[in-house]
Design brief:
The complex is a heterodimer of chains A (about 260) and B (about 180).
Chain A lengths: L1 H26 L15 E2 L5 E4 L2 E5 L3 E6 L7 E7 L4 E7 L2 E6 L2 E6 L7 E7 L7 E3 L3 E6 L13 E6 L7 E7 L6 E4 L2 E5 L5 E5 L7 E6 L6 E5 L2 E6 L2 E6 L7 E7 L4
Antiparallel strand pairs in A: 2-3, 3-4, 4-5, 6-7, 7-8, 8-9, 10-11, 11-12, 12-13, 14-15, 15-16, 16-17, 18-19, 19-20, 20-21
Chain B lengths: L1 H21 L4 E10 L8 E3 L7 E7 L2 E6 L3 E6 L7 E7 L6 E4 L2 E6 L2 E6 L7 E6 L6 H4 L7 E2 L8 E11 L3 E2 L1
Antiparallel strand pairs in B: 1-12, 2-6, 3-4, 4-5, 5-6, 7-8, 8-9, 9-10, 11-13
Classes of the chains: A mainly beta (about 260), B mainly beta (about 180).
Chain lengths: ~260, ~180
């Protein structure tokens, strides 16, 4: 009898482990890369305040989301204006949702009806500078301290947010990171600009234990766009391209210098 | 001659001490608006490439990379050969920080307005439409990236297209 009980316990444990693994698997990442629609719309970075989804242009000012119909791009029609919150900074599209970063949190809007975005939810955090990027299940927000971010907040971190349920985003984990600026995402990798420290490459296959797997030092970085295995990086001293076809051996492709630096 | 100079310096120093006690100027680091006159704001055109100085955001479109020159416009980089990207044009858009492109139409903030610009021919870009006052006045009235002191905006001097760090004497504006 005792034996059977033990076996049952083990079974339950195993089931638990399997479920945990499944759960983590669901949360992490897929190998499909994002935002690579091969059409005639371009691609911006995580610091952008403009974004195009289909026939609509969405822009933000410091408080509002504004929608334009650009079905005829040469004559855009101003449709509407939505109050989002104070000090909003960045907009990131992952249709049918828009993710808006503000100094105090992240907002999720649905664009199922693209002409009329609908507020879904928000997740507030300490006041800081905070661009956001997402895949379908996770949002990544970097929080930077510093006076230009209007905050006395003194730490720098990467917040990872479970967004499987768009109504109730849940903060899963905060990782301390060096002074983060813009960031980019491709499959299981995150690319984070660390200002003067360079650009960090992170593997988030396990969201609870993100690993920095590479670092491009000696360049000052402000924003990054990963696209077709090339990192497009901008900083105060230049525009850089790096190839990351092999994530373990990222290599320099080219640089355009900034004048007088 | 030398001693005369010394005496003068001493006297000057003395007076300065006195004046300081009577009327202490408050000098602090802050931001001063950079103005552009109202006509200049509508001057959107493409021109020879210029040096990249104040890098802003980047935007990818086909084989091109657009690099924002903060408050001035965008550099157009031909990236057909990523090993040797070429700075080929500058599109002058006063007060510009953000762009987006679809079907060769570039959308840009132009101080308070949203403009759409046909860039099919980079030698001669054409403004196709302008939606006025898309941005509220807030963008104009204070440096939205910083807190602290700044020189108050005088709208009669034109549009504010940017802010520079400066030592301010008795600034009256703060946020």
């Amino acid at each position: 009898m005792q034996k059977i009980k033990n076996i049952d316990k083990m079974k339950i444990k195993t089931i638990h482990i399997i479920f945990t693994i499944l759960f983590l698997g669901l949360l992490s990442c897929t190998k499909d890369s994002l935002n690579n629609a091969p059409n005639t719309t371009g691609k911006g970075g995580s610091m952008a305040r403009f974004t195009i989804v289909g026939d609509f242009l969405y822009i933000i000012d410091s408080q509002n989301l504004k929608v334009f119909d650009i079905a005829t791009p040469s004559s855009p029609q101003y449709l509407n204006d939505y109050f989002v919150g104070r000090n909003i900074e960045t907009i990131f599209p992952n249709p049918p949702y828009l993710y808006i970063g503000s100094a105090s949190g992240m907002y999720i809007y649905s664009i199922t009806n693209p002409a009329s975005p609908v507020y879904i939810s928000e997740l507030l955090h300490v006041v800081s500078c905070d661009p956001v990027v997402t895949n379908d299940t996770l949002a990544f927000v970097t929080l930077r301290s510093g006076s230009e971010c209007r905050t006395n907040f003194t730490s720098n971190q990467l917040d990872i947010i479970d967004i499987r349920n768009k109504q109730t985003p849940v903060l899963l984990k905060s990782h301390p990171v060096d002074e983060p600026y813009g960031l980019g995402i491709d499959s299981c990798y995150l690319f984070i600009c660390h200002g003067k420290k360079g650009l960090g490459v992170y593997d988030f296959s396990n969201v609870y234990n993100i690993q920095m797997i590479n670092m491009i030092p000696n360049i000052e970085t402000y924003d990054v766009i990963p696209n077709n295995k090339t990192l497009f990086i901008i900083g105060p001293s230049g525009f850089y391209q790096y190839n990351y076809a092999n994530i373990d051996s990222i290599y320099f492709v080219s640089k355009i210098n900034v004048f007088n630096r | 001659m030398k001693s005369l100079l010394k005496t003068l310096i001493l006297i000057g120093f003395f007076f300065q001490l006195v004046s300081c006690e009577e009327n202490k100027d408050f000098v602090t680091e802050g931001y001063r608006p950079v103005y552009m006159n109202h006509e200049e704001v509508y001057n959107i055109h493409s021109q020879r490439p210029i040096n990249i100085i104040n890098t802003g955001k980047i935007y990818l479109y086909n084989n091109y990379v657009f690099i924002n020159e903060r408050g001035r416009g965008v550099h157009v980089i031909n990236n057909s050969n990523p090993e040797s990207p070429q700075n080929i044009k500058f599109i002058n858009i006063p007060g510009n920080y953000d762009i987006s492109i679809r079907n060769n139409i570039l959308f840009a903030d132009n101080v308070e307005d949203l403009v759409s610009i046909d860039i099919a021919n980079l030698d001669s870009v054409i403004v196709k439409s302008r939606i006025k006052n898309v941005y509220n006045e807030v963008k104009q009235m204070y440096p939205d990236f910083a807190s602290g002191y700044f020189e108050c905006v005088d709208p009669s001097r034109g549009f504010v297209i940017g802010w520079t760090k400066a030592n301010l004497v008795n600034p009256k504006c703060r946020r």
